[in-house]
Amino acid sequence: MQLTARAKNALLAFSMLFWSCAVWAHDVAEGDKAFVQSIDGPAFIPFLYLGAKHMVTGYDHILFLIGVVFFLYRLKDVVLYVSMFTIGHSTTLLLGTYFGWGANSYIVDAIIGLSVVYKGFENIGGFKKLGITINTKLAVLVFGLCHGMGLATKLQALSMSKNGLLGNLIGFNIGVEVGQVIVLFLVVSLLNLWRGTSSFRRGAFSANIVLIIAGLLLTGYQLERYFAS
């Protein structure tokens, strides 16, 4: 299936914009870093807010979730797959940060980029054409673990105070899930509106190509930073 000239131009523009913004992928804003480092004790509500803010502004998470729910038409399927992602994300976020389990942030973020590539490729039937069968629920869980570890690695770099750490991490994690619900509500609502139009069938392929390109750009950017560090 070939893309139209308009679609190709749109993809090129998106790629340039994505690359120019990639430096902020999965990072914590400078103001938030200073705030986190200044806290010595319980601060449940502020950390809840920071968690929600991270999810709403974290387009690596958003791109992956778009891919996950793109062809899910039933609410129970959306809940099931998102729950698998949440279990994975919450596990490594909480345990990784609390016990100091770390990984190279560039490599983890590159894997997160590949998770976006995976969902886009799966959505266009790429694995089926290659004769490869993947347990999609397990894949979402595994990539959820990677997403959580990416954030845990970033939080550990902030040298958070041990005083009140567990409560603050729980607040942050709840905030992440609140932000996730907000993002999913908007994404699923927009997808449902689009699915009711004749353009969905024509545009679904191009939309998932955009996901693949975005994931490749994010992966390439993080690998470039890894080899340059």
Please give a structural write-up:
The chain has 229 residues and is mainly α. It is globular, with a radius of gyration of 18 Å. The N terminus is likely disordered.
Individual helix count: 10
Number of strands: 0
Radius of gyration: 18 Å
- Mind describing the biggest β-sheet? none
Question: What is the helix/strand order?
Answer: HHHHHHHHHH
Overall geometry comes to: globular
For the terminal residues, how far apart are their CA atoms?
Answer: 40 Å
Average pLDDT, all residues:
84
Low-confidence stretches: 1-25
Q: What is the beta-strand fraction?
A: under 5%
* Domains, number: 1
Estimated structural class: mainly alpha
The percent range for helix content is over 70%
What labels describe this entry?
229 residues; mainly alpha; 10 helices; 79% helix; disordered N terminus
Brief account:
This protein has 229 residues and is mainly α. The protein has one domain.
Give me the secondary-structure topology:
Elements (H helix, E strand, L loop, with lengths): L4 H17 L8 H9 L5 H14 L1 H11 L5 H25 L5 H19 L2 H4 L6 H21 L8 H31 L3 H30 L1
Helix pairs in contact: 1-10, 3-9, 4-6, 4-9, 4-10, 5-8, 5-9, 6-8, 6-10
